[in-house]
Amino acid sequence: MECQELTVDAQSDDESLPEDSNIRKWCANQEAAAQKAGLTLKISGELLGKQMTEAGFENIVVREFKLPVGPWPADLRLKEIGRFQLVAMLEGIHGLTIALWTRFLGWNVQEVEVFLALVRNEFKSIKVHCYWPLYVVSSSLHPGLTADTFGALGTLYMDRSRGPP
């Protein structure tokens, strides 16, 4: 079993993402809205590992990666990954934001759109070297658990004789 999650807490190792940046404000507002909805967007490898243990998984391995946003990394592979993540953020940020902010923070649609334009501009800036902390948690299934424990989806993914879905 493998679980991949990122935390909505943009980071930068070179101080190119100031604390008062619109990206950081967006992250803070996302978390504030999520909490009002009874959720959290701040994930940690420790938390994911604990949840996997509580669900009955064993031999848990937690790995942390930096998922770049934008083509700023020197490494060619990370540069390509960053380009894809930039497109995902530019095209998806409205959908990630609009319901949370209008329902839980009291913003109107126009206010959200104006602010998201500022956030998009920061994401596109070659001066900003930000990334999402990404956690990959893998484990083996506890002997007492079977694919049936997880229903049809578990059967689909855990029955190796069927091949990939």
Give the SSE map.
Elements: E1 2-6, H1 22-36, H2 45-54, E2 57-69, H3 76-104, H4 109-124, E3 130-141, H5 151-158
Antiparallel strand pairs: 1-3, 2-3
Helix pairs in contact: 1-3, 3-4
Question: What structural class do the secondary elements suggest?
Answer: alpha+beta
State the helical fraction: 40-55%
Shape: globular
Number of domains: 1
The radius of gyration computed from the alpha-carbon positions, rounded to a whole number of angstroms, is 19 Å
How would you characterize the overall build of this protein?
- This protein has 165 residues and is α+β, with helices and mostly antiparallel strands.
- The protein is 47% helix and 18% strand.
- The protein has 5 helices and 3 strands, in the order βααβααβα.
- It has helices spanning 22-36, 45-54, 76-104, 109-124, 151-158, and strands spanning 2-6, 57-69, 130-141.
- The longest helix is centred in the middle third of the chain and has 29 residues, at 76-104.
- The model is unreliable at 152-165 (pLDDT under 50).
Please outline what is shown here.
47% of the residues lie in helices and 18% in strands. It has helices at 22-36, 45-54, 76-104, 109-124, 151-158, and strands at 2-6, 57-69, 130-141.
Features:
disordered C terminus; globular; alpha+beta
